[in-house]
């Protein structure tokens, strides 16, 4: 089962590597960047979804490996989780220039890969990091109500129906928000407690980059 998942994720990586029609493809090549597919346990119960790779991520091919990633690791440690116990990915698999917001056509191009990752890993919990990922995922599962804000939904559990059964979406603030704002960090510490009830890493799998 796990090998099968890994094979399917490798197929996604290969497709993204060769995604010449992406408006971000030339930018990736010119800067010798890597696409960032995802990282963690392919059997994880919890999948974290961010917005798009930043510079550190594009230089290494690893999601959340810079300053935001350190915050994410700290928050995970507070609920006794490690990166190896969860799966971490982004909506976009390539870095947008100057970390600008993803464009509509980029989202359309990259989201089928994210949708396949969700179907392959079948997480019980989809924890969105930031407004962008929250809105995308809630819309995707028909659970977004107009004008809902992350300031209202953060730390709540929203039940959704997926192609593989029921799952819970937990909107969280983006770890970057905690970098310079201690209050925001406190809120995130509280919000992460919500994930505790789901963490059952029965058999911690190996840490995989893909
Ligand atoms: N911010 C994101 O949204 N994703 C990353 O991988 C890094 C920073």
In short:
By secondary structure, the chain is an alpha/beta fold.
Please supply descriptive tags for the structure shown above.
seven-stranded mixed β-sheet; 210 residues; binds uracil; alpha/beta
Q: What number is the mean pLDDT?
A: 95
Global shape: globular
What is the terminal separation in angstroms? 16 Å
Main sheet: strand order:
5-6-4-2-3-1-7
Helix content: 40-55%
Question: What ligand molecules are bound, each kind once?
Answer: uracil
Tally the helices: what do you get? 8
* Helix-strand sequence: HHEEHHEHEHHEEHE
Query: What kind of sheet is the major sheet?
Result: 7 strands, mixed
What is Rg?
16 Å
- Structural category is alpha/beta
How much β-strand is present in the residues?
5-15%
Low-pLDDT ranges: none
What's the count of strands? 7
Description:
The protein is α/β, with parallel strands linked by helices and 210 residues long. It is 41% helix and 15% strand. The protein contains 8 helices and 7 strands, in the order ααββααβαβααββαβ. The chain has helices at residues 2-17, 25-30, 55-60, 67-78, 104-121, 131-140, 150-153, 182-196, and strands at residues 39-40, 46-50, 87-90, 125-129, 158-162, 165-172, 208-209. The chain has a 7-stranded mixed beta sheet, with helices on both faces. Helix 1 runs antiparallel to helix 5. The protein is globular, with a radius of gyration of 16 Å. The two termini are 16 Å apart. 40% of the residues are buried. The model has no long low-confidence stretch (mean pLDDT 95). The structure holds uracil. Residues 50-54, 57, 63-64, 68, 90 line the site of uracil. Uracil (URA) binds at residues 50-54, 57, 63-64, 68, 90.
């Amino acid at each position: 089962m796990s090998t099968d998942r890994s094979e399917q994720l490798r197929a996604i990586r290969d497709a993204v590597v060769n995604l010449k029609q992406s408006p971000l493809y030339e930018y990736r090549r010119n800067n010798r960047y890597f696409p960032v597919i995802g990282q963690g346990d392919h059997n994880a119960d919890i999948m974290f979804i961010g917005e798009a790779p930043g510079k550190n991520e594009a230089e290494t091919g690893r999601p959340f490996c810079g300053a935001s990633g350190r915050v994410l690791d700290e928050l995970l440690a507070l609920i006794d989780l490690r990166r190896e116990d969860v799966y971490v990915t982004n909506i976009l698999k390539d870095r947008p220039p100057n970390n600008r917001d993803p464009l509509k056509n980029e989202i359309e191009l990259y989201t089928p890969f994210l949708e396949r990752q969700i179907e392959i890993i079948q997480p019980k919990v989809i924890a969105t990091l930031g407004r962008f990922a929250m809105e995308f995922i809630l819309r995707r599962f028909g659970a977004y109500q107009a004008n809902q804000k992350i300031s209202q939904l953060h730390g709540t559990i929203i039940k959704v129906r997926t192609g593989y059964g029921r799952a819970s979406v937990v909107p969280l603030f983006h770890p970057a928000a905690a970098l310079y704002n201690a209050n925001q960090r406190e809120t995130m510490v509280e919000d992460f407690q919500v994930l505790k009830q789901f963490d059952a890493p029965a058999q911690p799998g190996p840490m995989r980059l893909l």
